[in-house]
Design goal:
Blueprint lengths: L7 E4 L29 E3 L17 H11 L4 H5 L22 H8 L2 E4 L2 E4 L13 H8 L3 H8 L6 H14 L11 H13 L1 H4 L4 H21 L6 H17 L4 H18 L11 H20 L6 H15 L19 H11 L14 E6 L2 E6 L19 E5 L2 E5 L16 H5 L7 E3 L19 E11 L2 E10 L3 H4 L1 E10 L4 E10 L8 E10 L4 E4 L5 E5 L5 E6 L7 E10 L5 E14 L3 E10 L1
Parallel strand pairs: 1-10
Antiparallel strand pairs: 1-2, 3-4, 5-6, 6-7, 7-8, 8-14, 9-14, 10-11, 11-12, 12-13, 13-20, 14-19, 15-16, 16-17, 17-20, 18-19
Length: 616
Amino acid sequence: MADAALGTIRERAPAKEARAIPLGRAEELQALPSTEDAPGEVIEPGRALAIADFAPPSLGAGEALIRLAYRLGVSGTTLVRPFGKAAKPRLLGTVDSPVVGERSAGVALRAGHFFVHGVKAPIAQMDFSPVATLTPPFARTIHGFTWLRDLAACAPREQCTGTAERVLSAWLAANRKPGKGAAWQVENAGQRLLGWLVHAPLILSGDAKLRSRTLTAINETARWLDRNVSKAPDRLGEVAGWTAIVAAGLLLPDGKPRRLYGEAGLIRALGELVADDGGVLSRSPLAQIDAIVLLVELKACYRAVRRDPPAAIEAMLAMLVPPLLGLTHGDGGLGSWQGAGAVTAERIAALVSASGVRTRPLKEARQWGYQRASGGKAVLQFDAAPPPLARHARSGCASTLAFEFSHGPQRLIVNCGGAAFAGGQVPVRIEQGLRGTAAHSTLSLADANSTAVLLHGKLGAGVGEVEIDRRVMRLDTGGATRLEASHDGYASRHGLVHRRILILRDDGSELRGEDLLVPAGKTAKRGKIGFALRFHIGPGIDLGLSEDRLGAGLALPDGSYWQFRLGQAGEGVELSVEESLWVDGQGRPHPIEQIVIQGMTPRSGGSFAWLLKKMG
């Protein structure tokens, strides 16, 4: 049975048509219209794809029996040639992968350094042993051999083989047999085996002894994955392992039984990794990228041996790309969600080109949970779903009801992002802070996270239900997209539900919002509680408070000017400018500023209307 992907997502019942909002002056900003408080219609929680929807290729009785026998432990050689000798270790094809690595990291490797998220580490001083203490980004790069892709992107092959063989020799010397530690986590082992197979010309073109040792390591790793792939801690790690198993079945002699076994396991794991709108259950753009890369490189392995991949793999790849594009801004790069940094437009464009999928961004990803609205040159991204469940989360963030907003190539409102890059230029000590609610452009109560942020990327109790309503509005001078959502993350602790309304004009010149705190029960609690409403301002923007301290001016690098205004502020509510940071796609933190509206609000509820408008 497929696992539930997210907490409950409700669609608000249809209400009367939203009334027009007069433009007026910023000083006259009023509360935005809300839909009626009709009971929400429950939408089935996001679920992983059923196995029946993405089934392995149909097999005859003979091939089905081969697959079963291999799964039970009968060797591929015995099944393929029961009375013959085992074939000599070799590869059956040369893979030409369309996935392009990072050239700068490859250049650093040729100069004698690993280059991971802005941090250089000398190859000569690296501890390659499986029990070495490495930060997650370095462990993934070194033990997963993802650096081979970067090396291949920086220069012709003959100029790179020396570096590849040097690092490979050091790694093999420190990892003579399968064991424990980061080197033998299923995901790293799967990435490593796939990298060895895809980039074999880099590591098998030189010394004969090294070639023999490498082919032996390839076979041992493939056999280890056959037995251990199901022990991966999450579905993405399992998919990496199954992908490598299928690639080994395609490219190693007597591999048909392994291929049949691997295809069945891979398609089943993919069905449990991805929700029915194509978004991975971790809700992480980085995990979405990893899944696409794995399938693109596997397709290249099929081409190398002139076989067609199963239709389910093609269908899954076609599903994965639109949600990823749904999180791109006007500059073509990704938004900062669930630990991701602002991955560059060049990398996204190259990946989409490599996938061969031609599609448009997905606007309503209900199970993945991100809503996208666009108008003119403006793009709005809205997190309108509960965070991922603990078993799916990697760098899980308490970001429910946060948004990002861009106009053309400039990001105006962002989230801090970058928790998944901790261990590079982003210090590990701030990783949990980057995953908290305060690191996102949304509201927090009592300095608490809307969902508990735990160690090792996991999440605890908090948001379990989100209501979402999306509609098109008619305004006095044109149309607009209206998004309204609410979450229950503070209901049990503080008796309040956070509801957010966002309205983006079709010409992209204005974003109106209102954040409401609504009593969760019939009887409101007494007293007051502290709140903070944060808007992290994008890089390169000069920010200045207005004289009445109810607004701020945003001067953009292109010379344009935007105004942020707060509506009628209650007693004790203050607007201020504070420091913040933003992590780019290379994992480099940049100092930015944030607008913070904070104060005390009654436990009986409150509302805070605001406006972001392009001037002139």
